[in-house]
Structure prediction request, 196 residues.
Amino acid sequence: MFNIILFGPPGSGKGTQSEKLILKYGLKHLSTGDLLRHEISRQTPLGLEAEAFIDLGQLVPDSVVINMISSALDEQRGVKGFLFDGFPRTTEQAKALDDLLQQKNESIALFISLEVCKDELVKRLLNRGLTSGRSDDINQEIINARIEEYKNKTSAVADYYRPFDKVVTVKGEGTIEEIFSSLCKAIDTKFPGSVS
Ligand code: B4P
Prediction:
């Protein structure tokens, strides 16, 4: 399997670029943000618990997200690989993902970090908030809280993967096509012949 983590702060383009990468490389998209929003829309107990954290711009507790990803991995058979989007967001989640993959004799091949300045992140998220209906995108204070959570809890996840020579940094500013092309170049350089 060919498993990739697409990493970056809120609004860095993870979701946007994931949609394009899964088509090109034939991967299964696993977005914890999408999975949580699905639970919220169905008002399940997990969704109700997650909603309280998301509405404050905070991360959902590790145990909730790890169980959710564990079930999602078990549901998928015969896939070429996974594109993890928005997961792992803490070092605890990264360790849990390693364990889950190891049980399947799998591992992470590549960790791609999208880099975008704070002003651009805020601009994109407020802009999405005009149409997305997402409660965490409409208020600048909540957006600031999400970016703080990223700095305090999530950015260290890159350090977890760095010793394994799996981390690649890609500039996440420019047009969507320009960034997609940089991402493909990063993947193809590291793994020639990985296209589906
Ligand atoms: P996510 O759903 O992961 O939300 P996100 O980080 O805001 O999305 P993303 O980064 O993918 O957005 P994109 O740039 O594509 O998480 C939401 C919340 O769920 C978190 O705050 C947290 O509470 C919780 N959560 C999720 N996973 C968790 C975990 N593992 N542990 C704990 N909690 C978790 O899009 C942003 C906007 O920018 C879009 O409108 C897009 O069109 C635009 N855009 C993208 N690229 C652009 C470009 N190049 N130029 C201009 N605009 C661009």
User: Anything to note?
Assistant: The first strand starts at residue 4 and ends at 7.
